[in-house]
Amino acid sequence: MKEKLAEIKKAFIERAAAAESEETVEALRVEFLGKKGLITGVMKLMGQLSPEERPAFGQSANEVRNYIDSKIAEKKKEIKALELEKALEKETVDVTMPATKVPEGSLHPLNKVTEEMKRLFIGMGYEIAEGPEVEYDYYNFEALNLPEGHPARDTQDTFYITDKMLLRTQTSSVQIHVMEHKKPPIRIISPGKVYRADNLDATHSPIFHQLEGLVVDKGVTMGDLKGTLEVYAKAMFGENTKIRLRPHHFPFTEPSAEVDVTCWGCGGTGCRICKGEGWVEVLGCGMVHPDVLRRCDIDPEVYSGFAFGIGIERTALARYGVSDLRQFFENDVRFLEQF
Length: 339
Ligand code: DAH
What we know:
Elements: H1 2-18, H2 22-33, H3 38-44, H4 53-90, H5 109-123, E1 127-128, E2 134-136, H6 137-140, E3 160-162, E4 165-167, H7 173-181, E5 186-195, E6 207-217, H8 222-237, E7 243-248, E8 253-262, E9 279-288, H9 290-295, E10 304-311, H10 312-320, H11 333-336
Helix pairs in contact: 1-4, 2-4, 5-10
The structure holds 3,4-dihydroxyphenylalanine (DAH).
3,4-dihydroxyphenylalanine (DAH) is lined by residues 170, 172, 212, 250, 253, 256, 284-286, 307-309.
C-alpha cells in the first residue's frame, strides 16, 4: 500500500509537470484529490490494514495529499502569471505605427449658413431671441393680423395640438413674444424650425428653417430695411450681389415685399440654379403693421419698425448651388461632407 501511495505521488509529479493550463490543473485536482479521486481511493483501503499499521499509513497518505494540494495551488499561480505575461506581450503598443484615423464630422450646411447669418447680424448689433415651436394660435396668426378664417391661413396649414395650439408655421411669432416683453429700441433675429402641411419635394419640406428679423425704434424707415438686406445679400452671396424688392402682401407688414437676390451661380444672366430667371427669392419683409405694434403696447405714432423672414434652406440652396432641398435631410455623408 505504501508503494501505491508512492506511485500516486510519482504519477502526479509527472502529470503536473506537463500541465499547461488552469483547466488541466483543475482536472488533476479532481482526479487525485476529489471525492472519487485516487487518494480517497487508497484511504478507503485502510480498513485492510492491521490497527498497528493504520496510523503510520494515514500519516503518509495525508502527507501525499498535502503535497499534491500545495503543488496544485503553486501550479495554478504559475500558470496565471504566465498568462498575464503573454497577454501583456500581445498588447504592446508600437508607437511608431500609423494611427487609425478618427472620422471627423462637420457642420451641417443649414447650420453653417445659420451660424454665418447669426454672426453677421450680431455684428450689426442684433440680439438673438428664441420662441417656442409649439405655439399658441394667437402668436402664430392672430397677433400678426391673421384672425380666424383669414384666407392667408390656408397657405400655412399645420399640425394642431389643440384648437388653440399648433406647430408654428413661421418664426414671425417670435416678433410678438419679443415686443410683449421688451420695448424699443428692439433689434433681434430669431432662427428656428417651422412646420407646414406641405408634401416633400425638391423645393418644399414639411419642416424647414427661417431666420426672423425685427427692428423697432424711432424713425426706422424702409430705407433702413433695404440697406440691411443689401448687407445680408452681399455677405451671403458675394460683393456683387444686387437685391430686388417686389411688392407683396403679408398681413403683418405694410408695405410688404418679397426680396430676390441676383443668382449666385450666374450673376443674373440665368442658369440652372435660378431656373433661367437670373434672380432667386430668399425672403419676405416689410414695415411692421401699426396694428401689430399697438397689440404689443407700442405706440405706432412714436415708433416704427421693419421685419424680415429669411428662408434658411433657400439661402443654402442658392448659396451652394444645390438643386434639391431633400438632400439637406437625407443625411448622406457623401453630400454633407462637401460643405
Ligand atoms: N413669415 C413670412 C413667411 O413665412 C415671412 C415674412 C414676411 C417675415 C414678412 C417677416 C415679414 O418678418 O416682415 O412667409
